Amino acid sequence: MPSTQSSRRPPTNPGVLLVAVELERRRRRQAGESGPRFYGAAREVLDSRLPELVISGPAGTGKSYACLCKLHNLASSTPGFRGLILRKTRESLTTTGLVTFEEQVLGHGHWMVRDGPQRRNRQSYVYPNGSEITIGGMDKPGKVLSSDFDLIYVQQAEEFAENDWEILAIRCRNAKLAYQQIIGDCNPDRPTHWLRARATKGQTPMLESKHQDNPRLWDRHKGEWTAEGRDYVLGRLEKLTGVRRERFLLGLWSATEGAVYETWDRSVHVRTLRETIGLDAIPNEWRRIRVVDFGYTNPFVCQWWAIDPDGRAIRYRELYRTQRLVEDHAKDINRLSVYPDGTPEKIETTVCDPEDAEGRATLEKAGIPTVAAYKAKGSVKAGIQLIEARLRPAGDGKPRLRYLSGALVESDQALVTAGLPFCTEQEYDGYVWAKSSDGKPNKEEPVDKDNHGLDASRYLAGYLDGLGGGDPVPGWVAIVNKYGRPT
To answer: Would residue 237 count as lying in a domain?
Structure first.
């Protein structure tokens, strides 16, 4: 049986290449596949030769597809071309960008992917003319930052920091194209996001895509939604509320009115492990704590936190699932709580919502000792103050609470389909204060909705920082002294 690598090796003989191209054309004709159609911002992406470019828009407008088609077209037509597909973490590409590239851009049966769905292990796509498209993530930047490319495509660019973007831009210098370019797609974020700021200053032009640009959703000849468009846009996105509706349906760079956590900044607080601690693995000797918020119809959330010697809390693993029993979650928790070498992690404790005694009993029965989170009158607001203090930069310029990108164990497709948060970091933007009778935010009680991971994070902060009694951990003393301990 040939190896995976050899089965992906392209034909190099010119005669064989012509045959391969013709066979691919025939395959597409027989399958009834017509050439892709591009409109609006998607068309501009393909035509643009600007050094930097970002395409922004609601969910489902075809942004990623357009960028990936441009990469494929250039690789096919330019001998020696070197491209890069990049996301914040390599693992996140497996179920997003690479699925689109292999199934929609290359198409089923293409010779480069005939070995089956080996996306998790792929490192690149090699073309017959010597061109290559590399796959990467900023969590493992070595190969990415040591290579030169003609075109770099950054998927979900809003997840990156501005420094990431600028470092990548200087790697566009392979000189096989008449121009060198970095492009990215993004969903709208807060108006002060660095991408929006760069666009306003003219540093990175931003194209605005619409659902009507995507022929799968909008029939331009009839001037109406297709069946898929009615299902996705009218059936799903129209049901979103608040800031998620404004961003994912309307494509607006909007702020969250009455946001509970005003200092939250995804590009600051969601980082890779290397960006966070400068290492590729969390030291085994660091404190490790689990936190659980129970749920079945609503998500069950289990977070794993590591505490560094300075008292910084780093969420490095997360379960976020609906429609599963606690006993099944307990099995997953035990299975996942291991060091990289497979030995069991030394978990200090598992902090749980105290109101679910049955859930705690089920975890205890599975060999998972628990302690009750502090939950009394005023504890929600007090916990919020502790989280807010940890989100602020400390004396070294770094926050005392971060979420590692790629920490989610698996995505709950029911939540994804419904357009609801499917991990803790997605809850922040929609977490708002309840409104008073005058319509203004009442900063005493937040709206109790889509906050399951945030509740778990509050339990963690309360446990670490002495909420309800006890003393803060040593590395946290300076922060408590500066901002005060909530009462």
So the answer is: no
Neighbours of 18 (CB within 10 A): 12
DSSP state of 231: I
Structure tokens at 7: 């089965």
Residue 248 lies in a domain: no
- Note whether 346 and 460 are same-domain residues: yes
**pLDDT tens, 442-485?**
888 899 999 999 999 999 999 999 876 555 554 444 445 544 54
Residue type, 67: C
pLDDT at 306 over 80: yes
Q: Name which of 107-121, 155-169, 226-240 the model is least confident about.
A: 107-121
What is the Cα–Cα distance from 279 to 347, expressed in whole angstroms? 21
Long-range contacts (CB closer than 8 Å, 24 or more residues apart) made by 67-70? 67/153, 67/155, 67/183, 67/184, 67/185, 68/97, 68/100, 68/101, 68/104, 68/105, 68/153, 69/36, 69/38, 69/105, 70/45, 70/46, 70/151, 70/153, 70/183
Q: Which single residue is written with the structure tokens 């003609």?
A: 150
- DSSP string computed for 240-256: --HHHHHHHTS------
Q: Minimal CA–CA distance to 145: which of 158, 154, 136? A: 136
Together in a domain, 368 and 473: yes
- Domains contained in the chain, number: 2
- For 181-331, strand residue ranges (E) read 181-186, 206-208, 218-219, 224-225, 270-271, 287-293, 300-307, 313-321
Domain assignment of residue 118, given as a range: 4-225
Identify whether the C-beta of residue 192 lies closer than 8 Å to the C-beta of residue 201. Answer: no
CA distance 433 to 487: 20
pLDDT at 309 (0 to 100):
93
- DSSP string covering 271-282, please? E-HHHHHSSSS-
In a domain, 44, yes or no: yes
3-class secondary-structure state, position 310: coil
Question: 132-137 and 441-446: which strand pairing?
Answer: unpaired
